[in-house]
Amino acid sequence: MSESERKRRSSKPRQAKAPTIVDVAALAGVSMMTVSRVINSEQKVRQSTRDAVNAAIAKLNYAPNRAARSLAGASQLRLGLLYSNPSEAFLSAFVVGSLEEAGRSDVQIIVQKVEDGEDLGLAAKRMVAGGIHGVILPPPLNEANEVLRVLRQTDTPTVAVTTAVPHEGIATIMIDDRSAAREMTAHLIELGHRRIGFIVGHPELSASGARLEGYREALAEASIPFDEALVAQGYFTYRSGLDAAEELLSLEDQPSAIFASNDDMAAATVAIAHRRGLDVPGDLTVCGFDDVALATTIWPELTTIQQPIMEMSRRAVELLVTLLRNDRKDQIGDLRIEVDYKLVRRQSDAAPRRRPAMRPPVPSWG
Amino acid sequence: MSESERKRRSSKPRQAKAPTIVDVAALAGVSMMTVSRVINSEQKVRQSTRDAVNAAIAKLNYAPNRAARSLAGASQLRLGLLYSNPSEAFLSAFVVGSLEEAGRSDVQIIVQKVEDGEDLGLAAKRMVAGGIHGVILPPPLNEANEVLRVLRQTDTPTVAVTTAVPHEGIATIMIDDRSAAREMTAHLIELGHRRIGFIVGHPELSASGARLEGYREALAEASIPFDEALVAQGYFTYRSGLDAAEELLSLEDQPSAIFASNDDMAAATVAIAHRRGLDVPGDLTVCGFDDVALATTIWPELTTIQQPIMEMSRRAVELLVTLLRNDRKDQIGDLRIEVDYKLVRRQSDAAPRRRPAMRPPVPSWG
DNA sequence: GCTCATATCGATAACGCTAACATAACAGAA
DNA sequence: TTCTGTTATGTTAGCGTTATCGATATGAGC
Question: CA of B329 and C1' of D10: distance in angstroms?
C-alpha cells in the first residue's frame, strides 16, 4: 500500500486536535458507544464503568462535538430556567451550576426572568410555548401556584429546587431544612446560648416553615421554652432582615444569639448589631443559612448552613436530562432528591458573654 | 371503546424531511459534489450547470445543513474559558454571555475552573493541551502572569476581559475605567461634594490604577486640590474596605462622600458608616463600581458603575471566532475593544448636608 | 492523427456522533 | 446443568456535508 504524502500546507503548525469520543473510549478502555451513553446520562452503564469514563473525559478535557451530535440525530434538549427576583447571590450560583452540567450534556438552557408585576402564568406559558422540554424552578417561583399550574397542565416535566414541601407532579431537589435548622440551633445551645432569636423567612415559602420547625425542635430537645417574642418575621431580603434584627435587639431581654433563616438577613443583623455598637460575635452571635457568597464577603464571615446550590441545580439538570433522554418523564412526579447540607463554622458565633444574669432592663428610649 | 384504531402506529404522515444536497443533485442531474461547489461559489463550474443547480435549489427550497457542514469541513472551533474564583455573580453573567454567542457561532466552549492553590500555569497548559483554539480570560486570571506566559508561549489566541491595561499579545475587552471613575467623581462634585474620599483597588490589578486616575482627573477639572489623605488603599475585598473606610472616616475633616473602587468595598463603607451612626446618604454618600449583586442586596442600594459583563464576554467569543475563522489570529495582540459602561444612580448618593463650617457667613449677633 | 494540459465533474472517504441491532455477561429458574 | 431473561457493552450503519483525488471532456500544439 502506498501511502500518499499527506503533507498539507499547515497554517496551524501544531494545533493538537480536539479529543473525540474515540480517544476517551480508548483511554477508558471501553467502546465509544459506552462513552456516548455516559455523556448522555443513559441508564444501563455500570457505575464503575461510568467512573472510568468520567475520569477519562476529565483527563482529556473532552467536550462532545455539537455538530456531530445533531448530525447523528440526537435531539437537542432545551430546558427552561425561569426565575423572578431571588437573592442574586443565590441565583448566580444556581445558574452556574446548571450551565456547567448543561455544557457537559450538551443541552441548551433558556434562562428567562419574570419581571416584577408580570403575570406569572403568562410567563410560564410563554416559556412552554417556546418549545421547552423541561423546566427548572429556583425559589421563589418553585412555589408560585400560577406557574406550577401551567406547567402541570401542559405536562411539562419540572424540577423544583429547594422546596421543603414537594408539590404534586413536580420533582424536588432539596436539603432537609428542618434538620439543618435544628442542628444549627442545637449548636448555639451547646455554645451556651439560651435566648436565641430567630428570623423567619418568607411566609409563602415552605423552607421558612421547615426551618422554624427545626429551631423549635432543638429548643424543645434542650428543654428551653419557646418564646414567641424571640421570633421575628422576615422575607429573605436584606432589608427585611434589618427590620427583624432591630425588633429582636430592641427586646428588653435581648437575645445573645440570632439565627436568621438566610444569609442576607444574617448580614443585615450583623449590620444592625454594629450600628448599635455590639460586637459580633463578642456581644452577639449571628448565624445564617444558605452560605451564599455574601456570607464570606462580609466581616465577620458568617457561620451558616451550607446548601450546595450549584450541586443542586446541577442535579436538577442531570435529572431532567436523564428522564427525558430515557423517555421516563412520566416518573418525574415521584422524585425527591435530598442532598447533604453542612454546618460551616466561621467567625460569627461564640459562647455568650458571661451574662449579667437577669439584669434589670436597661432604660429604653422607645 | 374503539380507540385502538386511532392509536395505530402512525403511518405515513411523516413530516417532510428537509431536502438534502443529494435531492438537489438528483433534480439538477448532477452529482452532489457539484452542488456543493455551487453552494460554496467555487469557480470551476460551468455556467449552465450552475444555473441548473441553482434552479433545483430554488425549487426544493434547499438550505445547507450547518451541522453537517462544520462536521465535514473545517474542524469545529473550541474556545477555553478558564476561571478561578471571582464573584459568582460575575461569573454567571460571564458564562451566559459567552455560551449565548457560542451557540450562535457554532463553537464549543470548554469551561474549566482552576481550584484554589492549584498551579495556574499547569492549569493553562492543561487547557491548551486539550486542543483549544483560543482562550477567554475573565478576572482575576486575565492578569495572572503564569497563565499569560503559558498562553503566549503556546501561541494561543487570547482575549482578556476587563483589564484596564492591555497585556502584550493579548486582546482586551474593557470599559474605560478611567473615564468611568471620572464620571462618577464628577457626578459627586456636581452634587456638591468637595471632600471626596477614594478607596483604591488591589494594587496589582490594572483597573485600580485607571480608576484612581479618573478620580484625580475629575478633581482637577473641578479645580479641587488632590488630598492624599483622602485616598485609602484597599484590595477589592469587603474586609479591606472596612479598614479603608475606617481610615477615611477617622479624618478630622471627614469626607462627605466616599467613592470605592468596587462594590464590595463600598458595601463595607456603608457598614462602617452605620456603625458610626452616620446615615447613608444623608450624612455620607457612598458609591461603588461594577454593579454586582451585592450592590442591590444591601440597603441603601448602591449608586455604582455598571459594566455590561454579558455583552463583554459575548464580544470576546465573537472576536475570537472572527479572527480564527479568517485566519487572522496573528492580529489578535493589537485589539482593544471598548464597550460602554453606565452610571446607575440608586439610593446611596445625595447632596452633602450643609456643614456649618462651609456655610456662607451667618449673621452674627456679636 | 497524437500527446498533453486544462477545465469540469464525480466517486469515495472522512468528520464525530448516535440509533438500532447484536452480543456478551451474569443472574436466576427449571 | 441448561435454559431464559436481564443488564451491560460492542458493532454497524448512517446523518449531510466537504476534501481529495481520479475520471472525463475539451482543446491546443505538434
Answer: 42
Secondary element (H or E) of residue A259: strand A257-260
DSSP state of B344: E
Q: Which nucleotides of D are covered by protein (CB under 7 A)?
A: 7-12, 14-22
CB atoms closer than 10 angstroms to residue B194? 16
User: How far apart (Å, rounded) are the C-alpha atoms in residues B102 and A208?
Assistant: 39
Burial environment of residue A199 by CB neighbours within 10 A (0 to 12, 13 to 18, 19 or more): buried
**Contact between chains at B78 and A63 (C-beta distance less than 8 A):** yes
**From B92, B126, B267, residue closest to A61, measured CB to CB:** B126
Interatomic CA–C1' length for residue A44 and nucleotide D10, angstroms: 13
Contacts with B109 from chain A: Cβ below 8 Å: 103
CB A67 within 8 A of CB B72: no
- Rounded CA gap, B338 and B307, in Å? 11
CATH (residue range A78-175+308-334): 3.40.50.2300
Per residue in A3-45, pLDDT (tens digit) is 333 333 333 333 457 889 999 999 999 999 999 999 888 888 8
Question: Using one digit for the tens of pLDDT, what is the confidence trace for A189-212?
Answer: 999 999 999 999 999 999 999 999
Asked whether this chain's domains B78-166+309-340 and B177-306 adopt the same fold, the reply is: yes
Q: How many CB atoms lie within 10 A of CB A334?
A: 10
Q: What is the pLDDT of residue A106?
A: 73
Report how far residue A353's alpha carbon sits from residue A362's, in angstroms, rounded to the nearest whole number.
17
Query: For A177-306, CATH number?
Result: 3.40.50.2300
Query: CATH for B18-54?
Result: 1.10.260.40
Nearest to B238 among A63, A103, A299 (CB): A299
Contacts of A71 in chain B (CB under 8 A): 65, 67-68, 71
In this prediction, residues A174-200 reach a mean pLDDT of: 97
Contact between A95 and B92 using a beta-carbon 8 Å cutoff: yes
Cβ separation of B92 and A89 shorter than 8 Å?
Answer: no
- The whole-angstrom separation of Cα A318 and Cα A321 is 5
> In the structure, what pLDDT confidence band is assigned to residue A355 with cuts at 50, 70 and 90?
low
Distance CA B313, CA B95 (A): 7
- The answer to whether residue B73 scores a pLDDT higher than 90 is no
The identity of residue A343, as a single letter, is L
* Distance, first Cα to last Cα, chain B: 107
Residue pointed to by grid coordinates 468520567: A54
A365: confidence class by pLDDT, cuts 50, 70, 90: very low
Cell numbers 468596587 correspond to what residue? Answer: B262
Q: Which residue has the higher pLDDT, B322 or B234?
A: B234
Q: Do B89 and A271 touch (CB under 8 A)?
A: no
Cβ(B297)–Cβ(B93) below 8 Å = no
In the predicted model, what is the mean pLDDT of residues B351-361? 61
Where along chain B do its domains lie?
18-54, 78-166+309-340, 177-306
Average pLDDT score over residue span A103-123: 83
CB-defined contacts A:B, below 8 A: 128
